[in-house]
Amino acid sequence: MSARGIVRRVHLWLGLSVGALFVLTGLTGSLLVFYPAIDGALHPGLARVAAGARPASWQAVYDALRRAEPGRDGAWRIEVTPDGGPIPVRYYAARETRARAFAPLMLWLDPVRLTVVRRGFWGGYATTWLYDLHYRLLLEKPGALVMGIAGIVMLAMLVSGLWAWWPRPGGWRRSLAWKREAARSRRLYDWHKWAGIGSAQVLVVVAATGVLLDLPDQVHPLVARASPLFATPPLRSVPNGPPLPLDTLVDRAERALPGGALAWIETPADAHGVVRVNLALPGEPSRRFPRSNVWLDPYTGRVLAVRDARRDGGGDTLLDWLHPLHDGEAFGLAGRWLAFVSGLVPAVLFVTGVWRWRVRGRARARAEAR
User: Fold this and answer.
1) Cα–Cα dist 204/343, whole Å
2) Are 153 and 14 spatial neighbours (Cβ–Cβ below 8 Å)?
3) Distance between CA atoms of 24 and 75, rounded to whole angstroms?
4) Residue 342: how many CB atoms within 10 A of its CB?
5) Are strands 116-121 and 303-307 parallel, antiparallel or unpaired?
6) Could you tell me which of 322, 244, 331, 243 has the C-alpha nearest to residue 289?
7) C-alpha radius of gyration, the chain, whole number
């Protein structure tokens, strides 16, 4: 068997073995590209909050959280959405889900009335269940390892498909031809071929970034060898009277990183904790999850540490781009739609590939019978 024949056989075996998982990953990924919008549509109660409304004070938001959940003394992570509306909040130290690797309490507050309009735990409602299925197959940390390995196999499947198709010198015109009047097997091949050719570049980027996101324990040490990664310094505060209002601390953080858009506010985890303010600076690939931070002493307002993602080294820059490339956020709405469409392609590749394999198998069986 020639090298091309071996590659085609490998491509077939990989498609039959992990093709269905490739389809599942693609379809769930397509939905997750727009999961905040889908999540909002599934919970009509959020629509009753005034569109574009913003809180008068972030300290008032924090006080409302403490009133609503008086027994939760750990850190609250408040998301600042660009368009206003319901305020999403996370509490990571929830007693109810402490046995799970990641299952924070999720709250949504009305920014005007400062009342809780929705409550749930991560993984307990549709979009987060879908996220866990896509990211870890609902298997917690072992599932991420499985998905990382599966992603490497998917990359091998994509590369082997391109290799098996790649035309010989002088054969480009024939390889690119679309034969509408050919037998069913050939027409299926053309659909499979063009779906793969048209999406190969995007699928390789999405699959590669997915592998790197699924395997942080393996990837980060390797990246750090080539380029040292940012490490949050150990920070503590000393109680010295009542803490300053969050609005004062946010104002000082914005002055420390001028031009940034407020993205998250994280309150102290205990009496010796610090406040972390997350800002999206111009040029960062992700608006929702930027990497620029300011850490402040909640009692004195002193800036304890600053991370400006624009000054990150090569390793951190690579890691900063993984998620925005994976879901298309780095290229705005057009990038998101491209990621959405690319997630549908594995289903087309799997159906046309398996269908053609069965058609050829039946034809071969009939020929042997004759």
Assistant:
1) 12
2) yes
3) 35
4) 23
5) unpaired
6) 322
7) 25
